[in-house]
Every structure is written in structure tokens, then in C-alpha cells.
Amino acid sequence: MRSRKPTKLVLSNLFSRSAAGKATQDPKHLRPPNILLRTVNYLLDDILSRQDTPFIVIYEFIMDRLRSVRQDMVIQNVSSSYFISILQPIIRFHAYAAYRLCEEEINRFDPHINNTHLQECLKRLLYTYNHCDRITQVAEDNVDEFLLENRPGFEALYLILNLGSPIAITRTLNLPPKMETLPTLLLMIASLHLPAIRRKALETLSVAYNSKNLSFPVQLLKELLLYDTEEQLISDCRYYGLEVQNNGVYFSKSLFDLKKSTTPQKHCCFVEKN
Amino acid sequence: MTFMTLAHYLQIIDRSWRAQDGSKIASFISLRHEHAKYQNYHVESPEGLVERFLISPIDDLVVLHLKCLYYIAVGDFLEAYRQQSTLVQNFSKILQLQKEENWSLPIMYTICSDLRLVAQQAEKQKIGPNENPGEILEKAAECLMGCFRVCAADNRSAEEDTKRIGMLALVNQLFKVYFRINKLHLCKPLIRAIESSPFKECFSLSQQVTYRYFVGRKAMYDSNYKAADEYLTYAFENCHKSSRKNKRLILIYLVPVKMLLGYIPSKKVLEKYDVVQFWDLVQAVCQGNLKRFDELMDMHETFFIKCGIYLIVDKLKIIAYRNLFRKVYLILNTHQIPVEALQSALEYLGQDVDLDETQCIVANLIYEGKIKGYISHQHRKVVVSKQNPFPALTTLS
């Protein structure tokens, strides 16, 4: 199967659940933090970029190995700086996968499981950031700047991932103000909310533009709701029960089908362009 | 200066324990009672003395209490927290063994509330490298849950002796912790336990007020304003009139909720409870003065965020839009309002919006039922109903 010959043999630990009667805690099998970091780098630099295997297989492999890294990291409670350096790339990986694989079938990729990992890592990272805040306050000893330089991005990721959650918004509002424009990774995660936002928008418009004779131009609606093509928009409108004729959507309060579930997540051109 | 001697103090506790006088022990084991201030109660190892006066199991509780006082006196809140936490844990075991009796519940109320207060102090003090913010409070909550389980599981006792009557006090303490550490999702099972309790109406009024204050705030965060109004109104009306600080706290949440439902607070009330920050805002909303609204949001940003109401207050803007558009409608005196007219009004008040965005604002108002009518995109007109196009907000569901 593999055409490429390995130049040197590289081994990476498989994840295994801790269970009663199993000696997972054997310190001899724990990898020290610098090795964990090297493992992460190896997985995400060398393995992730491989073109000879389908991405879904690579994803499965990397996800499993990263999980094992996290397990080792938690057991020995590595220092904050290692927590940050190890978690940041892992979070980026899971966020990237959430978007890249969003059109995949459920039996090949489960967005819920990926999301659970993403949330878990992200929360641990945010805790670590908080912890650094405290150290800085108490010891007046500055944590290395480079460890915190990505913080705004990850705080934003947490907020966007949990759009609409009062807990996430409370956290963000209590942070010192320091925000930038959205990098690509955040665009990707934000775009996953689009189907739900579009549904809400179409529902609102169906009430506000409710009319038998008047229509709303497809072209404009496509731009407002960030659709890539008019066909996509038309198909969504019809899915929710709205009529589309002569490049116009006929909004109707009574025809909009509230029972229809939200359309599936899709890749978007404006994200890919970035 | 000294209070009564330690020996005298121990005698009183002994007598009260034998007489099953829960309230008396509660006050004498409280960190906030007068005796706590006096130096003769700050004993590092009180075991020997206590054992001479007290029988098991109360001796153990008093030892822990005195140790806790000692560590508070020397300023070590982390250690004080540990003592108090052990005290609560040991008490919950005693409570569990007291079948068919609930006279000791007042003790539980006091020590649990003390535990939370000490935990808050310990939070401020901790510096250990492995501790996350909120961790001590979270542990304290677990400890409170221990007591809660004992109370909730007591379903054999007769109604007058049931420990289930103690549940609400614990739920309130847990609410205080969860709101402080921003873990609101943990409130849900507690609310369910209280709402399904057969003693729902029997809890003391003060506990009911506290409970409804927190449940009301939770409903507000969940955008359930009708319920929030109900809970917070109950809390405000039943809160004792001398508790001005608490009434003010309730009002901070009740005012925005009421306003969202279309009710305007009177200036007198806002002044009385020192929340005048809202008054200018009330006026800006009523007048539809969006420029002033934005300025006020900027000015009071810190206050609103600190109270956790920034986003709720921000929602009042949609009411300001409604009032502004109503004025445009009255001035033009037509049922077909040009979108441009609305946009000019918005621009005049410092809102940077184009025609599409103006339509978006109108669309949301129509969707929410605040304007009756529809938008014609082709004619760039908002066609409003001939009858009652801007229904009173209080009539909307």
C-alpha cells in the first residue's frame, strides 16, 4: 500500500482508555513534555500534509495519537507553558477538521465527537491562560509573551464556537479588550453557524416580506446571506417551503415550514479563498 | 477584651446539643457570630479542652470550628477553608444518621453559608501553581451537594420532621457559587428538584426571595423574559423593605426585563434604589434617540458588564428603533413609509446604515410583532397596517 519507504522508523503511542486493573500510570511509559511537543509537531507537520492517504484516514490516525498525547500531558500535569504550546496546535487541528470534514457522512466523521474534543482542549487552554493571568498578578513575573500572543485568537474561537451561549459571552465580556479581525480558522468555525443563521433570517424575512404578489430578488438575497450560488439559495428556499419564480423569492408567513430541520453545513467559497 | 470564657461557651453548646436546640448551636458555631472576633476563641489545638466538655459527635464539629477561627485570625484563609469544609462534610454524616428529625437544619444553614464565604476569601488568596480560578468554590459546591443529597434523600420522615425542607437554603448557596464562577448550566437540575418538591410553598419567605432572584436571572439569560419578570417581580415585592442593597440588586435585573416587555420604570424608584444609570437610558429609549442610547451604552459599559446585563440592555435598542420609526410614521402621516425616510432618521441619529440594513431592522421589528405590516422590496416601502400599526409593547406576547 505504501509506496514511500520510511527513512527512519517513527512510533507514536496509541490512545488507550484508563480502566480498572490496568497499569496506565506506570511512569516509565509516560513521555516527558518535550517529547509530547515533538510528537504533536511530527503529527501535524509530517503526517497531516501527506497526500497519499485520504484525509479522513489521516484525521482518524492523528486524532487518536493526539488524544494519547493529551492523556500523558494531563497525568503528569506539565507546566503552563507546555500546556499552551501543546494545546494550541491540537485545537487548530480539531477546528480545521470540523470545517474540512463538515460535508462528510456521519458514519465516517462524527462532528459531535470532534466538537467534544475541541471544546475540551479549548477549555483547558483558557484555564491555563487564566492561570497565567494569576501568576502575573501575584508574582509580578511575566509569563513569556510568545505564549500569550495567540490568546485573542483562541478566546475569539471559543466565543464563535459557542455562539449564543451566555456562559461564553460572559467570559469574553470580562476579558481585557484586545481583539483583531477574524483569521481564516475563525472564519471556518463561524461559517459552520451559517445554516442556522440563514434559517433564522429566512424565517424573519418570511414574516416581514409576507406577500402574494411581491417578490425579493434572488441575486440580492444570495449576497446578503453569503450564498456561493443562486442555485444553493433557491434550493434552500424551496426546502423551507418558499416559492421561487423569475429570479424572485416569494416570502410567505404561512408557507415557511417551521418543522424543517436546519440544512446541513457546507464548504463556502469565501472561506476557501482566504 | 474578652467575650464569655471558652469553658462557658462550651457549656452552652453542650446544653443546647442535649436540648436539641438547633438555632442556638447554629449561632454559636457561626463564623459571623460575635464570639468569633475574640482572641480567646482563636485556638490552634482545642482538642483537649473541647473533649472535657462535649460528647461525640458535636465535639468534633466544635474543634473544627475553633481551628477555623484560629486560621482566619492568623489570615490563612486556605487552611480556614479546609477546616470549614471538613466541618460541613462531618456534619452531613451526622445529619444522615439523625433519622426522623430535622432540628439540626439551622446548623447546616449556618455552616454552609460560612463555607461559601470562607471559600470566596480563599479564592482571593490562593497562589498555588496547580489551581484554577474558581476551583476552591467548585470544591465548596461539591461539599454543599453532599448535604443536599442527604436532605433530598430523606423521604421517609413525616412532613414536620423532613430534612427535605432544608433543600432550598442549599440550592440558594449553590446558586451563589455557580453564578460567581459562571457555571449556569449546573443550576438546571437544582431548579428541577425545587420545582418538583411537594414542599415548594413551605420554604421560608426569605429563601423563596433569594431563590426567585437567581431563577429570574437565569431565565433572563435564557431570553425567557416573561418568566424572568414573574420571578424577579416576586423577589422585589417580597424582599424585606429594610434590605435596600438586595432590592437594588433585584432591580438591576428587573428594570431591563420590564423594559423589554414594554414597561417603563418611574424616576422615583430608580432614584430611591440608586440605579439612576437607567434613567437616561429609559428616556433615550422612549424618545427613540439612538445617538444618546449609544453614548449611554458606552458610558455605562463597565457597570452593565459587571452586572452581567450588557447584552440585555443592548436589546432595548430594538425598542428605541420602534419608537423612532413610529415618530417618522406620525410625521409623514402615511401608511406607506419610504425606506429612505427611515434611513435618513437613522443616519441623523448617528447610525451608519444603508438601505438594506434599514430594511433588516424593520424586518426584525415586523417579525417580533412590534410593527404590523410588510415590506415591499420593489417599491422600497414599508406598508403598515391601517389599524394600530405600532401596537403597545405590553400587548405583545
Question: What would your notes on this structure say?
Answer:
- Chain A: Residues 15-179, 181-245 form the SAC3/GANP/THP3 conserved domain.
- Chain A: InterPro entries: SAC3/GANP/THP3, SAC3/GANP/THP3_conserved.
- The complex is a heterodimer of chains A (274) and B (397).
- With 274 residues, chain A is an all-alpha fold.
- Chain A has 12 helices and 3 strands, in the order αααααααααβααββα.
- Chain A has a 3-stranded antiparallel β-sheet.
- In chain A, helix 6 packs parallel to helix 8.
- Chain A is elongated.
- Mean pLDDT of chain A is 84; it is low at 1-7.
- Helix content of chain B is 63%, strand content 3%.
- Chain B has helices at residues 6-18, 22-28, 47-53, 58-73, 77-97, 105-125, 135-152, 167-180, 187-195, 205-221, 225-238, 244-260, 267-272, 277-287, 290-299, 301-307, 310-314, 317-332, 339-348, 355-367, and strands at residues 336-338, 373-376, 381-384.
- In chain B, helix 10 (205-221) packs antiparallel against helix 11 and helix 14 (277-287) packs parallel to helix 18.
- The N and C termini of chain B lie far apart (63 Å).
- Classes of the chains: A mainly alpha (274), B mainly alpha (397).
- The interface between A and B is medium-sized, with 30 and 27 residues.
Notable features of this structure?
heterodimer; A: 274 residues; mainly alpha; Serine Threonine Protein Phosphatase 5, Tetratricopeptide repeat; Arc Repressor Mutant, subunit A; three-stranded antiparallel sheet; 3 strands; 56% helix; elongated; disordered N terminus; B: 397 residues; 3 domains; 63% helix; CSN12-like protein (chain B)
Beginning-to-end CA distance, first to last residue of chain B = 63 Å
* Spatial strand arrangement across the major sheet of chain A: 1-3-2
Report mean pLDDT of chain A, rounded to a whole number.
84
Structure annotation, total helices of chain A: 12
Distance between the termini of chain A: 34 Å
Please state the oligomeric state of the protein chains shown.
Answer: heterodimer
Strand content of chain A: under 5%
How many E strands of chain B? Answer: 3
Output the CATH class name of the largest domain in chain A: Mainly Alpha
Rg for CA atoms of chain A: 23 Å
The helix-and-strand class of chain B reads mainly alpha
Strand order of the largest sheet of chain B: 1-3-2
> Which spans of chain B of ≥5 residues are poorly predicted at pLDDT below 50?
none
Query: Topology as H/E string of chain B?
Result: HHHHHHHHHHHHHHHHHHEHHEE
- Contiguous helical run count of chain B: 20
Helix content of chain A: 55-70%
InterPro entries (chain A): SAC3/GANP/THP3, SAC3/GANP/THP3_conserved
Protein name (chain A): SAC3/GANP/THP3 conserved domain-containing protein
Family (chain B): Belongs to the CSN12 family.
Pfam family, one (chain B): PCI
